[in-house]
Amino acid sequence: MYKLSNEISMNLGDTSKKLSLPDKVKKDVMRNKELYLLAIPIILYYLLFHYWPMYGAIIAFKNFSPARGILKSPWVGFEHFENFFSGVYFGRTLRNTLTISITQLIVGFPAPIILALLINELKNKAFARTVQTITYMPHFISLVVICGMIKQFTSDTGFITQLLSYVGFRKQTMLNNPRLFVPIYVISDIWQHVGWGSIIYLAALTGIDQELYDAAKIDGAGRWKQTLYVTIPGLLPTITILFILRTGNILSVGAEKIILLYNPSIYDTSDVISSYVYRQGLLHSDWSYSAAVGLFNSVVNFSLVVFTNWLSRKTTDTSLW
Amino acid sequence: MANNKIKPSVGERIFDTVNVIFMIIMIIITLYPMLYVVFASFSNPGKFMMHYGPLWHPLDFTLVSYEAVFKNPNIWNGYRNTLFVVVVGTTINMLLTIIGGYILSRKNWLFKRPLSLGIVFTMYFSGGLIPFYFTVRALKLDNTLWALIIPTAINTYNMIIMRTAFAAVPDSLEESAKLDGASHFTILFKIMVPLVVPTIAVLILYYAVGHWNSWFNAMIFLTRSRSKYPLQLILREILIQGSLTEMTLGAGMDDKEMISETIKYAVIVVSTVPILCLYPFLQKYFIKGIMIGAIKG
């Protein structure tokens, strides 16, 4: 019986394979003409602005000059990569990127979870909504304005510097002090995004089955125990997904905020891989070298996402794909 | 059973009080920096220079900083460029996002899977900044406002939100329309689009705010056309690079330095108020968007 059904399914597989692939495609195109037509602009966009740059990344292995173009520029193999790895910038940018990412992961990742849990515990729902509305707001302020505010407030006459001087800090232009860059970067990030980040957890909280709480109450669980045994487990899938994303992105600290905040006197602690690529490539026109640094970064990032995703699927059954 | 309200224990009451206090502190920490900006922008430049520490009200209320800002042609020009990018850019974004979301949500066509894979792959891997830069230059988009529109015409994450919304529409609607002889164009724009209006509203807002706030592409692509600078790039000059020469022209040497501080705050207000004014009305849509995005498609 088992064998028979196996044979049948094999035969079925054969008949459908009788149509060769080009024929199958032709038939499908005829049937879904319009879908293929609609797909053209989409495909064109991805080819032009995503796949063409991927092809263009081969300039990392060449000595590219715009006059000669990608194809005619001479090959140099791994020279640019070797220069990067043996130079002083590799260690520095890698260290700074990791420091910022890991600090953000440790301090910035739990912050919205905690805020969501605390908002959830508020008895007065109107007050809870007010807190939400207000804490979401900074998310929409542009990065340029945020960084302008940071610069003003932490200058030697800024009000934050002033407030800190009351508790014993030295008055200084805080952004000229290399040791203060990471705290300023991370704290301002939390200030701007903690409210917005909490939305997704609050949404997940509303999805937790109310009966679980009722059952826990019957078992005599107080609010703390309910949080520990019902709420947090209910949030875990969301936390896991976001954690995978974050750890996968551990080497991709964006250049934008860095460029707006740093200055040469604090490059030592603030220059990350992406800001280095920008400076070296677009300001100093060292195109192939910076393309190599960027490609290295892309490849590592991609591997990290794939790896963390695989690890998470193995251990927790939660994954991005 | 549920009506038997258990009296909160002492510990719980302490927690509730502390929690409320914590939230009030959160509100203050969030709002105060913004209030400070507003107060400073309305302050007398000279008095503000002499003042240290927190501000609780404008110092000697005056509008001089705003007058200087509104007299500045760069600000107006920046506003105009930004508005163009927001309106045209968002329109193109939405058109492509709707089309892309639709074709990716259709189940019975061969190309769906390879296309999805090819698109999702770009979320995790890119050629990097430099090749991207040269691609845009090769297409002759640099030093035009199109450099801020075409290369970012689709945000893949937003397109996936759109796809999820289309996929949630029951198949029966499409099938019955097909039986009536409707084409995919008709199905998409006459049947599907009206059903996903909330998602479309969310994405319009995401894209528009994104365009309003973006500056990096403008910085790298508009190197030789200052007249095309969007507002954020003008802001960067004023706030980050501290160049206010044109704005303080005409003021005396001492005044120049004094007014340059309060002008910065006035510029922040002028550039941020439009977004924050819309914010209370749009808030529910933004939140909806995050929730849609949270559903794994």
UniProtKB/TrEMBL annotation, chain A:
PANTHER family recorded: BLL4140 PROTEIN
Gene Ontology, cellular component aspect: plasma membrane
Keywords from the named record: Cell membrane, Membrane, Transmembrane, Transmembrane helix, Transport
Lineage: Bacteria, Bacillati, Bacillota, Clostridia, Caldicoprobacterales
Domain ABC transmembrane type-1, first and last residues per copy: 94-308
Bilayer topology annotation: Multi-pass membrane protein
Full protein name: Putative aldouronate transport system permease protein
PROSITE patterns found in the cross-reference section: ABC_TM1 (PS50928)
Keyword Lyase part of the UniProt annotation: no
Principal subcellular localization: membrane
Membrane spanning residue stretches: 35-52, 98-119, 140-164, 184-206, 227-245, 287-311
Family note: Belongs to the binding-protein-dependent transport system permease family.
Localization terms from the record: Cell membrane
Gene3D superfamilies registered for this protein in UniProt: MetI-like
GO BP terms: transmembrane transport
From TrEMBL, chain B:
Protein name (database record): Putative aldouronate transport system permease protein
A biological-process GO annotation: transmembrane transport
Highest taxon, organism lineage: Bacteria
Primary subcellular site in the record, as a coarse category: membrane
Keyword Secreted on entry: no
Keywords, sorted A to Z: Cell membrane, Membrane, Transmembrane, Transmembrane helix, Transport
Matching Pfam families: BPD_transp_1
Annotated ABC transmembrane type-1 domain residues: 79-280
Membrane topology, record value: Multi-pass membrane protein
PROSITE patterns recorded: ABC_TM1
Protein family: Belongs to the binding-protein-dependent transport system permease family.
Listed InterPro entries: MetI-like (IPR000515), MetI-like_sf (IPR035906)
Keyword Membrane (UniProt): yes
